[in-house]
Amino acid sequence: MTGSRTPGTAVHPLDDPVGSALRGPHAHFAERRGRILRYPPSVTPWLALPDRPEAADWADAAALAGPGGIVTVTAFRERPPEDWEVVFDAEGVQLVDVAVEAAPCAEAVRLGPADVPEMLDLVARTRPGPFETRTIELGTYLGVRRDGVLVAMAGERLRPPGWSEISGVCTDESVRGQGLAGGLVRAVAHEIRARGETPFLHAAASNTNAVRLYESLGFALRRRTPFLSVLVPGNPPVRVPGPARDDVREAAAR
């Protein structure tokens, strides 16, 4: 969400997290056409629209995504043009750090580009939401291995000025209930705070287990926010990035 606001009204970075990140710390990732900003699809599927997009804005979004492509947005409540098919529309929550006991995780190892195949495999098994071949470039990713196998991870995604989103939180079914997710979230929060930034995150409102976990760690609800994915009109087949095709339905990655 970018663009028009009532003159003199301050926009909080988290009210437009995608646009704020792409105009700020993640500007080097930004692909722009007119008033539209987006990340490269190999990084993450998020795109920023103006508050009240005009026909030209939708045309620019379509040109960036390509015929049959997917446009995924958050913090946006306008309806798309009639010929754009809505493939996912759900309510999410945005949570911010108010009392997280951030600390390093003794088991955690720092993940890098060489670990991406393992990370993609873990994402395919656990389905935390979109994770692409270059998502690791967005920030710090930490993981836990057992018997040499990556079984849990968490990292960073959107970075509006002064903030960093914790994302990609997932644990293999074989190690759930051992506190690995909580430990990794605290460890990533520790990395974020060390830079002088504040952690935040998104989750699907319906994912009550994840929301309860984050609240128990010291995150609090800031606001409810919609997540919308729409299909660009056109004939080519849709390619939803990532190892799991249904990830477009889980854009509110925890």
TrEMBL record:
Enzyme's top EC category: transferase
Keywords associated with the record: Acyltransferase, Transferase
Enzyme Commission number(s) of this protein: 2.3.1.-
Annotated GO MF terms: acyltransferase activity
Pfam families: FR47 (PF08445)
Chain intervals for the UniProt region annotation (Disordered): 1-20
Keyword Cytoplasm appears in the UniProt entry: no
Record bears the keyword Transferase: yes
Residue stretches making up the N-acetyltransferase domain: 106-239
UniProt protein name: GNAT family N-acetyltransferase
Lineage start: Bacteria, Bacillati, Actinomycetota, Actinomycetes, Kitasatosporales
